[in-house]
Write a structure and sequence with these properties.
By secondary structure, this protein is of the alpha/beta class. It is built from 14 helices and twelve strands. It binds glycine.
C-alpha cells in the first residue's frame, strides 16, 4: 500500500479540497505569482493566502510564527486545510506548521519544482532550520495528498530542472541501476518525456519510505550524496541543492572506491554522468576546513565520526558507514 496518496487530475484535487471547512493557501513570493493563477480555477473558498519569502533564510521558526499568527487571525477550525504551493521550503515549513497548529491540521502539498516533486513533497518529513542547522526542528507528519500539476514543469528554468534531476540520479544510483543508465542518456529540455521518470523516482522513494518511515535504517540510503552535498551547499555561494548533491554523489562514490567498496568501472560511469550534466556547476574555491566542520555537526553524526550512505555498486547502497574524514581526503575526492 502506498504511504502517500498522489493525485494527477484536477477533478480529484477539487473533490478533496471541497470537503474542508476552510482552505488556507501557503505560497512564496515566486509561486504566488507564477503558480497560484494556474490553480485558481480549482480553488474556491480560499479563506486566506499566506505568502512567505523565498530562499533558505526564510525557513525559520520566525516564519512559522507569522504563519500561526495569520491562521489565528482568521480563526480557522481543526477541520481546515493548509494547501502548500511551492518548493521544498513551502512544503517543509507548511507541513511542520500544519503538524503543530492546534496539534495538527490537514495539509496537501502541491510541489512546484522538480526537486520538490521527486523528494520533499512526500515521505512525511517536515522541518525548519534553527541556529544555522538545517532541518533540525521538525516532525514526521503525512500530507493528505500530494497533487502533481505537471504543467508547472514547463515554466521551470533549465537550472531548476537540473536541480531536481540530481535527486532522480540518486534514486537510480541507490536502488535501480537500469533507471540510472536511462537517466544518463536523456535530454532534459523535453519536460513531457520526464514524466515517466518522475513517476519512477516517486516509486523508488515511496518503497524505501514504506519500509522504514522514520529513518531508523534503510531510509538513510536516501541521504547518499547529501553528507558532502549539504556541506557544499552550506559553504559555497550560489550553489543549488541539486548541484551540491550531484557533486556530493560523485565525491562519495570516490570515497567508496578508495575504501575498496565501489568497483572502478562503476565510479567511471558515475563520473561520466555527473560531468555530463553538471560540469557548469562544479564547486570552485572550496573551503575544506569549513566543510568538515559542517559535516561533523550534522544531526546524523555521533562524536568525531561522520556517517555516510555509500554506494556498493550502481543500484546498491549501504548506510551507517562511520568514518573519520580529514581535509586531505576531502580535497582529493572533490578534485
Ligand atoms: N530527502 C530524504 C528523505 O526524505 O528521507
Amino acid at each position: 500500500m502506498r504511504h502517500t496518496q498522489f493525485l494527477y487530475k484536477p477533478e480529484e484535487i477539487e473533490k478533496i479540497v471541497n470537503g474542508y471547512s476552510e482552505i488556507i493557501v501557503l505560497a512564496d513570493e515566486n509561486t504566488a505569482v507564477h503558480c497560484l493563477p494556474l490553480l485558481e480555477p480549482l480553488l474556491k473558498n480560499v479563506k486566506q493566502t499566506i505568502i512567505i519569502g523565498t530562499g533558505e533564510e526564510h525557513k525559520t521558526m520566525q516564519t512559522c510564527e507569522k504563519v500561526f499568527e495569520k491562521l489565528m487571525a482568521v480563526h480557522i477550525t481543526r477541520n481546515a486545510l493548509l494547501l502548500n504551493v511551492g518548493g521544498g521550503l513551502v512544503c517543509d515549513l507548511g507541513g511542520f506548521s500544519a503538524s503543530v497548529y492546534k496539534r495538527g491540521i490537514d495539509y496537501i502539498n502541491i510541489p512546484t519544482s522538480l526537486l520538490c516533486m521527486v523528494d520533499a513533497a512526500f515521505g512525511d518529513k517536515t522541518a525548519v532550520n534553527f541556529l544555522q542547522t538545517k532541518n533540525i526542528i521538525g516532525s514526521f507528519y503525512s500530507p493528505k495528498t500530494v497533487y502533481y500539476l505537471t504543467d508547472l514543469l514547463k515554466t521551470l528554468p533549465q537550472r531548476q530542472l537540473y536541480n531536481g534531476f540530481a535527486e532522480m540520479l540518486k534514486h537510480g544510483l541507490i536502488a535501480y541501476a537500469d533507471y540510472f543508465e536511462e537517466l544518463c542518456g536523456i535530454n532534459l529540455t523535453d519536460t513531457e518525456k520526464l514524466l515517466p521518470y518522475i513517476q519512477t523516482s516517486i516509486d523508488i522513494k515511496e518503497q524505501i519510505v514504506e519500509e522504514d518511515p522514520h529513518e531508523h535504517g534503510l531510509r538513510k540510503i536516501l541521504n547518499a550524496g547529501h553528507t558532502i552535498g549539504h556541506a557544499l551547499e552550506a559553504t559555497q555561494k550560489d550553489i543549488y541543492h541539486g548541484e551540491a548533491v550531484a557533486w556530493g554523489l560523485l565525491a562519495e562514490a570516490k570515497l567508496s572506491h578508495e575504501l575498496g567498496i565501489l568497483p572502478a568501472k562503476h565510479l567511471d560511469i558515475i563520473s561520466a554522468c555527473i560531468n555530463k550534466y553538471y560540469s557548469n556547476s562544479k564547486p570552485q574555491n572550496i573551503d575544506y576546513h569549513k566543510m568538515l566542520e559542517k559535516m561533523k555537526h550534522d544531526k546524523k553524526n555521533t562524536d568525531e565520526y561522520i556517517s555516510f550512505s555509500l554506494l556498493q555498486q550502481i543500484g546498491v547502497c549501504g548506510y551507517d558507514i562511520e568514518l573519520e574524514l580529514d581535509v586531505e581526503v576531502l580535497e582529493r575526492i572533490l578534485a
